[in-house]
Amino acid sequence: MLTALKVIPQLLCWAILVPALSRSLAGTATAVAAATGFVAGVAGENLLLAYVGGEIPFRPLRGICGVIFLLLWGASVWALYRSGSTRSEAEPPAPGPIAAGAAAVSVGVLAGALTLCRLAPLDGGAVRLIPYLSLAGAGAVVALGAASLAKYLPERLAPRGIPLMALVVSALMVMACSVQRLDLFSPLSMEVMKFIHDFVHQFFESMLIPDHPFFRSDVWGYIGLLFGDKVGLWGGLALWYLPVLFIALALRLERLPSVAHIRQGAARRKLLAAFIRERRLRLAAPLLALVFLTGAAYQSRFPAAEYWDPKPIEVTATPAGQIAIPKKGEVDLEDGKLHKFSYRQGSREARFFVMLTPAGQLVTTLDACAICQPEGYGQAGNAVICYYCRTLIPLETVGKPGGCNPVPVACSVRGDAVVIDGMALLNSWESTVQVTAHGKGMGK
């Protein structure tokens, strides 16, 4: 029952996509091609999960989703550029049966693979046989059943060209963002936030603004707003919505048909009114795409997953300043889970965690990265998540520097304990936090 509930949003998106494809392209043949593609996508992705494992089955899908979103951006700019044209000039010719079938199969394969990933175990491996077969059958039945209803869809509501592309891509984004390892919106927000942080930091440093005598403390408070997580969120939302908004604007700005050849005023008004009504109906696809994108962003910001996030255990150092954590002490460091600790020396304090990577190596990192504010990490399956920007980091890269990865801390394994230099830990924490917390990286 719980397995079926997981894929209901994906199947609903699929049920909307298939009628739009079959009504706009080549009818029932398109629906059959889409259903075939869906089953093939489910089967192919499950084979990858079974025989390859790890993050490899997810990376191509995430890359494809990123590419089609970029293509949507390009198409939206082109549509806006051609917005002064008439409808016949702005729309491409209808695709032939072969092209329509190829497009339907491609969309079906991608939709099936994305939907199956929703059922993939967090610890890796293939989906069990009964859920796998049930999903493949449900996707085919939904496709054929929805296509039989497509004939009742008014011709004027059938999206074509770039509006159809917007509807398809936005529905696929919903399917992708429901899977943590395929999410695109959170990484997009993080990149926007990182760009703004780096740009503002470098600009202020190059202009020597932090040392300007006329900058009061309240001015720095306003500047610090640029270093909040909301900057990345709103910037990401702008990039997320703009393509569909451009397409809607392009439809709205389409040139009215010429009526100079019509002598009767009533006939002119009737033709223009019919065109305006049809143009309004054609806005249904971009508006539905906006709803899909909103659902995708919501799923990204509030994923339906519980993270392993243990309370930090306080540790002490020897007189020589060495922190020794037993492998099999209060916790088992080699159980594959993230284990958090805190170390205090006077008024100084640092948070860090120790875990065993899939390669079998014990690593120690700060509970913070070099980009985001230090809100820490949680673990879900074979990834950890940054609570600040919601970015997923595969366990294979934990312990390596760069990006949103937790900052590595040098450690050594001596006998049955992991040993860390306490002073180096505190210095690393403070040098990281002073750059990321509350906009202090500007030298305030």
Automatic annotation (TrEMBL):
This is DUF2318 domain-containing protein. It comes from Geomonas paludis. It holds the Pfam family FtrD-like. The keyword Transport does not apply. The chain crosses the membrane at residues 32-52, 64-81, 129-150, 162-182, 231-253, 281-298. Signal peptide: none annotated. The keyword Transmembrane helix applies. Residues 333-426 form the Membrane iron-sulfur containing protein FtrD-like domain. Keywords: Membrane, Transmembrane, Transmembrane helix.
